[in-house]
Amino acid sequence: MKYQHGQALTEGLIVLLCVLTFFAAATWLGRLQDMALYEQHASRFGAFELARAGNIDNAKLSPRFFQGRHAGWRNRQGNALVVDDRIQVTYNRQARLDPQSQPGAVDRNATILREEWELKDSGIANVSLRIRPRATTPSEKTLTRTERVGWALDFIDSLAVSLRRHTAILVDAGHAINAQSAHERAAASNTAWQQIARASYAAGKKMAAAAMPVDTPWGRAAPVFDWFMPWAGKKP
């Protein structure tokens, strides 16, 4: 037994070191997950901005998601983990769906209707974010026994990671801001509406020219030759 004196103390110190390292790693991982969550929000916001405005204002994107009270990601030394030069934003609208993936596929009439109804994919809005949290560098000097625990925690802080998030939105796939806009787009289609409507309007106007003199004594309203737009917002 005399050879085991102090063994429990040594084992306790080792376990304590492992527990401290575990808690430090848990908080470090939590900060990374929180940063990744805001990075995902930023990529979605950027994708919608690119889809609507055609461009992304980086001067607004970074302060909105990576600055302020919610973005208090710091290491144990109190230094900010995310700085502007560690945030990389890339975006483009070059990718497009192939004809087979478009509405109506490769059918000739479907191709014409896609053009007239503005259903043709004009470019997928792709936004990617990459964040490299600023890491600390462990000291390279010879460490004493009392400094080794701190070195283990510094090693966790210095782990180089790269967080990536990506969002893609299909743009101009037949979306309309309101019923009026949808009706205007549909009414402008020569194949689906105007070609047939012109012939019907011409026949209707001939009939109205002959019938209106007879209907005048009864005060009947003249026929309306717009059979589409008055229904805006009154049908799906």
Shape: rod-shaped
Into which percentage range does the β-strand content fall?
A: 5-15%
Oligomer: single chain
The SS-based structural class is mainly alpha
Number of strands: 3
Query: Termini, distance in Å?
Result: 88 Å
SSE order, as H and E?
Answer: HHEHEHEHH
**What is the overall pLDDT average?**
77
**Helical coverage, percent range:** 40-55%
Strand order of the largest sheet: 1-2-3
The main sheet comes to: 3 strands, antiparallel
Count of helices? Answer: 6
What's the number of structural domains?
A: 2
Which value, in Å, is the CA radius of gyration?
A: 33 Å
Question: Spans with pLDDT under 50 lasting ≥5 residues?
Answer: 137-143, 145-149
